[in-house]
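Incident log, structure service

09:12 report received: a user says their structure output differs between two submissions of the same chain.
09:20 pulled the input from the user's history:
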Amino acid sequence: MRLLVTGREGQVAASLVEAGRQKTGVELVAIGRPELDLARPETIVEAIAAARPDIVVSAAAYTAVDQAEDEPELAFAVNAAGAGKVAEAAARLGVPVIHLSTDYVFDGKKPAAYAETDATGPLGVYGASKLAGERAVIATNPRHLILRTAWVYSPFGRNFAKTMLRLAADRDEISVVSDQWGNPTSALDIAEAILHAAAMLHRNKTFAGFGTYHLAGTGETSWSGFARHILDTSLKFGGPWARVRDIETMDYPTKARRPANSRLSSAKFADVFAWTAPDWRESAERVVSRLVNIATAASH
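09:34 re-ran on a clean worker, output below:
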């Protein structure tokens, strides 16, 4: 099975490249800028066609949530038009596309976990651009899996876990928002789920479950709860630790509004693909221990 992944630097793309190396029967090709640039649609179809994939994983995206408020044209060019072009390139080759989306398509007002059938209502440019991307993917390739995920962290790229460890290295206390809730999701788990689903699509040419799915870590917490677990785990493995002080969203103003509730129900994905993410604490421990070990090795 030959998988093409858009993007090389992103957390999911990097996790897929790593996971793909360890899987027999999987040939994984990651293409990013300049060969494939979502902001330059003329590069997309040719780059994907040249790779001759069995399945395309659309992982590249504009993810700077606050910056998107100042760069709406670029966010929409990449996340909407670019995503649509990737799906179209896959459709031209007659292959499925697995497209990554986000909890930010919701307004966060629901009191329970979001299901795929719930009404969308993005609060900012980033969420709106990702929702437009979902619609573009649906319109251009009927053989699509749209995977909405949330609170992604990993050993790669910039993310919350890395930020907490960096801050803990030079301060005693970190203030973290406690009134936003979600499912911390390891990109390593997302990569495993994608490879699992892709293998199913590859085996079953008459697969009838195309559509939108939620794919997030098992269990829920607040950002401050997530921070405490990261730092307690770090301490356990000899890494930096700091106290976490709970604050409210209003105490930490950001340019883009965040959903207060980012919890996603992954029941549909579990039902169709027979795959469930580990408990978020287990996955966080794997990532944090790895980050601490990398930092320790680098300092010696």
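09:41 both user submissions now match this output. Likely a transient worker issue. Closing.
09:42 reviewer note: The radius of gyration is 19 Å. The first strand starts at residue 2 and ends at 6.
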